[in-house]
Amino acid sequence: MAVSADRMRQRRPGAERPVSTAADAIDFDEYIRRVSALCEACNDDRLASRVGRELRRLMAAADWLPAECRAAGADTYRRHVLYADPRGRFTVLSVVWRPGQGTPVHGHTAWGAVGVYAGTPSVANYRLVCDGAAELACEAVCAPGDVTLVQPGIDYPHRVCNASDDVAITVHTYGRDLTEDPASINIPL
Fold first, then answer.
1. More confident call, 81 vs 21
2. Who contacts 10 (Cβ-Cβ below 8 Å, separation ≥6)?
3. Does 188 map to a domain?
4. Among 21-25, 69-73, 92-96, 116-120, which is the least confidently predicted range?
5. Which CATH number goes with the domain that contains 150?
6. pLDDT, position 11
């Protein structure tokens, strides 16, 4: 869920965020149709950003996520598979974060787009330094409706955490089949 450094610099208190309006909102079935069409039409570096635009429209819709997909895990964040493309091109997950839960620093095995459904998760981006370690580059607190993009590989290490007092829910669309092992999207650092 890496956020670009430029976008993080823009995240000052009171700064406007690019959020779709209710008039632009689409439901989950329409989102799946649009992502499927995008996967069919293009398979290039722009796919994640195009999916991100559609995800922003889904995040503008109210109360579409089923209650069972909002359930949190007791000890760690919890993933729920919402949809798996039958051709293995993408998977949509909801991830539920209780206060204090987060990931280690990691990269991803595929492109992705991540939207904030509820709460205010924090994203910390890191840069790799010459000895293979990672140092903090920038950090941001995301808000409902925010969408960030994920590039494949370990060159974009980041960490997600819920430092707030409320549950946070994010919706992730990744460019691969994750039905067998949703955690296989992560590359630990």
1. 81
2. none
3. no
4. 21-25
5. 2.60.120.10
6. 43
CA distance 172 to 160: 13
| Token output for 22 | 């209710």
**What pLDDT is recorded for position 19?**
54
Is position 161 within any domain?
A: yes
What is the domain count for the chain?
1
The pLDDT of 140-147, averaged and rounded, is 96
- The pLDDT value given to residue 6: 39
What 3-state DSSP class applies to 80? strand
Read off the amino acid at residue 114: V
HEC per residue, 122-174: EEEEEEECCCCCEEEEEEEECCCCCEEEECCEEEEEEEEECCCCCCEEEEEEE
Q: What phi and psi, each to the nearest 5 degrees, are found at residue 169?
A: -130, 130
Judge contact between 20 and 55, C-beta under 8 A. Answer: no
| Alpha-helix runs per DSSP H in the chain | 5-10, 28-41, 47-59
3-state helix, strand, coil in the chain (%, to 5): 25, 35, 45
